[in-house]
Amino acid sequence: MNLVTRLSRSLGQKGRADITLVDENLSHIWKPSLHEFAAGTKGPEEEISFLEHSNRNGYKFRLGRFAGVDYQERWVMLDPVLSDEDVELSPARAVPYDILVLAIGSRSNDFGTSGVSEHCLFLDTPTEAKRLQSAILNLCLRMETGALDVDNDAIRLAIVGGGATGVELAAELREATEQLGRNGIDKLRIPDSVGITVIEGSERLVGALPESISEKVLHELETLNVDVLLGTRVTKVSEKTLKLGNGDSLDAEIIVWAAGIQSNKALASAVDLEVGSLGRLLVGPTLQTTCEDRIFAMGDAADCYWPEQECSLPPRAQVASQQAAFLEAQIKRMISGRALTEFKYTDHGSLVALSSSSAIGSLMGRALGTMTLKGWLAHRAYKYLHYQHEAAVQGHFRATVRTFLSMAMRRVRPRLKLH
Ligand SMILES: Cc1cc2nc3c(=O)[nH]c(=O)nc-3n(C[C@H](O)[C@H](O)[C@H](O)COP(=O)(O)OP(=O)(O)OC[C@H]3O[C@@H](n4cnc5c(N)ncnc54)[C@H](O)[C@@H]3O)c2cc1C
């Protein structure tokens, strides 16, 4: 979204290029906020329609699921997209290109663990976030009405993976279930009526962030009455039960798998390009794929080397948005026949949101050095990141109006999606 908006404004609207966005969904959700959709604290009004956005910004939107590339003829092949009722919304078709950018993100990595795909919920797509939201709401309703037979009148939610996704989801679910208690589901007002457990294989939470932040996040989750099992691997999942590496079992009505990422499965079956770590497309410093000069890859879909840290760039929104800004300039260079340049990533730090008013993280900058933030200020900084994304794709005026409208709506509608 970030890249297509930039290219439309600088090339499409000036008639210098014909720009097409293909997506398998009809609307855009900023992926770092998926846990808020899953908890019901954000609703459909936060989504941006591709149809409306493309019309306003002067690019074409094509609904379709990426299925492969015909390199000789330069066509992107698309699989059909079906509605929830299995009605075909778009047929198999092909879209021509001169320059192609693959930015189809990633999906959860089950590391081959038995039973995960059958018995876990995921948080990779808007559809999965909505599925999780209704599963949690239904579970709470069934407990309230007596339709659910649970031990000690308590429901249990387990989240596998203590990275940013798992940790943010745990905090958001704690807040959401407390809100449900205030919105008519009386049994949720009873202390310990919702048990939330985060299971992490390594010895600390949010392993990609500095150790001091992991400790603060752990402390914050304990304050929110979230159980954390560190150094614990899940070896098997069956219906409502997790088998742990130490031989123990853990029962849970809902199990969410958020234990790291791998490449989007469409890439594995569809593209004959060189892949790197986690099955992502290998790109050079210009972000061109290693076999096809006219094909770029970015964001979670790309495996791009980070020379300063001697590893691949992490799958983060911050990497994707810096690559979008870089690719706008890079594509303009390619079109005008100028030499391409190399992408350089700058780590500005990371923030982990822990509920509607708190966050923890570190910000990095030349003037600041590394600064640890916690609490309300950190949460404001986190919200500002979302605003920056909104402003990049909607413009500052719309982003500001949408932010104020969303603040105003919170005063007149339930804080949670309750249906
Ligand atoms: C709950 C959660 C919290 C997160 N929090 C943070 C955070 O705090 N900070 C941070 O830096 N990162 C965070 N991340 C990671 C961040 O969201 C990703 O790194 C970032 O969104 C990657 O951007 P992308 O453009 O590569 O992919 P995505 O944002 O995943 O976009 C991929 C797009 O491709 C479309 N698509 C997928 N498959 C196909 C297909 N086959 N055909 C057509 N279209 C397709 C999708 O519909 C989507 O629009 C979080 C992720 C999650 C899930």
Explained architecture:
Its cofactor is FAD. GO terms for molecular function: NAD(P)H dehydrogenase (quinone) activity. Belongs to the NADH dehydrogenase family. Residues 10-324 form the FAD/NAD(P)-binding domain. With 419 residues, the chain is of the alpha/beta class. It folds into three domains: 2-107 and 262-336, FAD/NAD(P)-binding domain; 116-261, FAD/NAD(P)-binding domain (3-Layer(bba) Sandwich); 349-409, no CATH class. The chain is 33% helix and 25% strand. It is built from eleven helices and 26 strands. The chain has helices spanning 2-10, 34-39, 50-57, 116-119, 126-145, 164-182, 211-223, 265-270, 317-335, 376-394, 396-412, and strands spanning 20-23, 27-28, 48-49, 60-63, 65-70, 75-79, 81-82, 88-90, 93-96, 100-102, 106-108, 155-160, 194-199, 226-229, 234-238, 241-244, 249-251, 254-257, 261-263, 281-283, 295-297, 302-306, 311-312, 349-353, 359-365, 369-375. The strands form ten sheets. Strands 14-13-12-18 form a four-stranded parallel sheet. A three-stranded antiparallel sheet has the order 5-6-9. Helix 1 packs parallel to helix 9 (317-335) and helix 10 (376-394) crosses helix 11. The longest helix has 20 residues, at 126-145. It is globular and about 70 Å long. The structure holds flavin-adenine dinucleotide. Residues 22-25, 28, 31-32, 34-35, 65-66, 103-105, 123, 164-165, 168, 264, 266, 299-301, 315-318, 320 line the site of flavin-adenine dinucleotide.
